[in-house]
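User: Run a structure prediction on this.
Assistant: Running it now.
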Amino acid sequence: MKILTCTAPGLFNYGEVEKPLLTSGKSILKIKRIGVCGTDIHAYEGTQPYFTYPRILGHELGCEFVEGDAEGFISGEKVTFIPYFHCGKCIACRQHYTNCCQNIQVAGVHTDGGMTEYLSVPTHSLVHGKDLELDSLALIEPLAVSAHGIRRAAVKMGEYVLIIGAGPIGIGAMKFASIAGAKVIAMDVNTHRLTFCQQKLHVDHVIQAQGVHVYEQIQEITLGDMPTVVIDATGSQKAIQNAFQYMAHTGRYVLIGLQKGDISFSHPEFHKREATLMSSRNATREDFEYVISCIRKKWIDPQTLITHRIAFGQVKDEFLNVVRSETVIKAMIEL
């Protein structure tokens, strides 16, 4: 079968390997769709902190179930999977926080992922497609990451939520914050993405991050209160540190984005707000099921995120052009 390996930063190579053999506790999936995510881009650029080379990338997958000891799954069924393989024994797993398992192995990061024709995965990671199309199934995982961040923030009806970064994760967070009844403020440096948020998501407010008087704009929108929830979905150290100033007193700041460096901020400014700072890592099966439910109820249409498509055989040549495009929201690889 064909595989595509990121052998070093900035370098993809195609190869041929044997199809994986079925083993106990595993299932074989036929890969049909692969969403390109920020993790893949950062790995290609050499800026992903939990990464070693060579690695087969890809963990946003729309698949067909081929075979395995998975009760209730049938051959040819459309499925996706939870790509965070947990140990089941550490303190996080014992408390059902499998998304941040102490020994976690994420497909496409710690172990080889889905840029291949067939993939062997733990049977317990499988998720029924429930009549969703392959494109939608490939977007369950990033949307679940967004939903998990909103759940971590405990977003409430009527409060202002500032979401910084209008990529797929940020856009998903905007949508789930809106579903929770929040008033959403979208911030990004990319004007095209802000326009997308206005036209496709109908967010309440958009702010150009490099514009003038950003603090004053947020203050005016929130009638002087400032947002009670701030979410970073950029993974930019500068953006993360700059956003501490935007929190309301009693505010919650959730970091979905990830970067390699340290974070610094004014302790007195943070302390006087009695603010809460938290990270949001990956997602749980509960988040996956919630996203599927929202899609089936037509509260969210994941296919609106897909702006570019790439044939699997063209990824090596087209990847950089697509991910650097000003107009890209989500690129989808097709097999």
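The two ends are 12 Å apart (CA to CA).
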